[in-house]
Design brief:
- By secondary structure, this protein is α+β, with helices and mostly antiparallel strands.
- It folds into 2 domains: about 290 residues, no CATH class; about 120 residues, 2-Layer Sandwich (Fusion Protein Consisting Of Minor Coat Protein, Glycine Rich Linker, Tola, And A His Tag, Chain: A, Domain 2).
- The protein has 14 helices and 13 strands.
- The strands form 3 sheets. Strands 8, 9, 10, 11, 12 and 13 form a 6-stranded mixed beta sheet that branches. A 5-stranded mixed beta sheet has the order 3-4-6-5-7, with helices on both faces.
- Strand 10 and strand 11 form a beta hairpin.
- Helix 1 packs antiparallel against helix 11 and helix 5 crosses helix 7.
- The two termini are about 35 Å apart.
């Protein structure tokens, strides 16, 4: 299961990266701010939900493998037995999986630490209720103003300044709260935690933060504050230390861009068509994911770190609702089921009976189909399904041949034959 999540994360990171490039190329700061924010959030949603919604998760790998035989149409075969030996690709992907998990833990630890510091700061500060939000005044005068959830946090010096800047500060931060920008940042931070290896996830978060600041600056200007004075105030407060990325800080970086955006003519509604650029970007992402080397990596990642359980079984339920030991279908057995004549005989059977579908040949489709089936206690083959598909024609051909297999020698537990699952990956390769 963890390997499948890893594979899914890699695939979604590809979509996120390509869509972000499309956004930066055609949309960033060329459309209304609300549209930019919507586009960025849409990129997150599309990248995370595309594979589940289009039913393509099975192409990322969903199978646990007990005994594995790869049958190729060039008649070369590679065997990975179920006795603990592993391939080089499995070892590499398992190491990558471990590094991914460690990276997530490190990012999560930093995120949790920031939230503890934030709560501690709010708890220590002087609180003043201001309707829909709460003002928190802290004695740390080196801290730049920021907002989070329904709190606006100011230093004592900023609060007691008593000039026009205080009103501008509160107007700026209250816009962050009213627009629920903190929810966007939490979501973006969660994606950064899972895709910490993906530069696009960090760039997306910073882009989203920048759009938040542009929106808040725009709200201040609409309320009638003098633009030049407001810009000077931004410059003066740019030296304060900023709270970590979990909150919207007033002295957000890229100050030059913020001032430029205030002076820039507002985009017209005709600029909304630029959002269509994400459509070909999504197509490009799918093409990248479909590159043979990339697709193979995703499938190898799905198998990483997925050990075979030692004594797990599923039970068939009889018509009266009862279960019995004899009816259990095991996922691991003491003695593996075996094709009559052994693996060499199975190789001969597969090579003689498999036919490369013409449709797949014309489209030059290759890949590994994993067929999952049950070897019954009497050796019959039953419940044949595709655990990991490549293409409908290849999937159908692999299932057809498995269904036509003769009886096997069944798997055994305690010396007794039992029904058990078996996964047979078949690699279709063109010469």
């Amino acid at each position: 299961m963890i390997g499948q999540i890893f594979s899914y994360t890699l695939a979604s990171s590809i979509v996120l990266a390509v869509l972000y490039l499309g956004y930066k190329w055609c949309m960033a700061r060329r459309c209304p701010l609300w549209y930019d924010r919507l586009a960025l959030l849409g990129i997150y949603v599309i990248s995370l939900l595309f594979f589940p919604l289009t039913g393509q998760l099975k192409y990322l790998g969903v199978a646990k493998e007990t005994g594995v035989i790869d049958v190729n149409f060039d008649f070369a075969a590679a065997v990975t037995p179920a006795n603990g030996e592993t391939s080089v690709s499995y070892i590499i992907m398992s190491i990558a999986l471990l590094i991914w998990i460690i990276g997530m833990a490190v990012v999560a630890a930093g995120w949790i630490g920031a939230y503890f510091r934030l709560h501690s700061l709010i708890k220590r500060g002087e609180k003043m209720e201001r309707g829909e939000w709460t003002l928190v005044v802290t004695n740390d005068n080196t801290l730049a103003p920021f907002s989070w959830k329904h709190y606006i946090i100011l230093s004592r010096d900023d609060y007691e300044s008593g000039d026009e800047s205080l009103g501008a500060l509160l107007s700026h931060e209250s816009r962050h709260l009213a627009s629920c920008h903190w929810i966007d940042l939490m979501f973006a931070q969660a994606v950064c935690m899972v895709q910490w290896f993906n530069p696009a996830s960090w760039l997306m978060r910073e882009e989203l933060r920048a759009v938040h600041e542009y929106e808040a600056d725009e709200a201040v200007m609409r309320e009638g504050f003098d633009g030049r004075r407001y810009q000077m105030m931004l410059i003066k407060r740019a030296v304060g230390k900023r709270f970590p990325s979990v909150a919207n800080s007033f002295n957000h970086s890229k100050l030059k861009n913020r001032i430029t955006m205030m002076c820039k003519k507002k985009p017209s509604s005709r600029s909304l068509w630029r959002g269509l650029a994400l459509v070909p970007a999504l197509g490009a992402a799918l093409l990248v994911a479909d590159i043979p080397a990339v697709a193979t990596t995703l499938r190898d990642a799905s198998d990483a770190g997925v050990p075979v359980a030692a004594a797990v079984s599923e039970s068939k339920v009889s018509e009266n609702g009862a279960t019995s030991q004899e009816e259990k279908i095991h996922t691991a057995v003491e003695t593996l089921p075996e094709y009559p004549g052994g693996m060499t005989a199975m190789m001969d059977f597969m090579c003689k009976n498999l036919k490369y579908p013409e449709e797949a040949q014309k489209e030059k489709i290759e890949g590994r189909v994993v067929v999952k089936f049950v070897v019954e206690a009497d050796g019959r083959i039953g419940d044949v399904t595709v655990a990991k598909g490549v293409h409908p024609s290849l999937d159908k051909e692999a299932v057809r041949v498995v269904k036509n297999m003769p009886k096997w020698s069944p798997g055994k537990v305690g010396g007794k034959p039992v029904a058990c699952y078996f996964n047979l990956p078949v690699s279709f390769k063109l010469d």
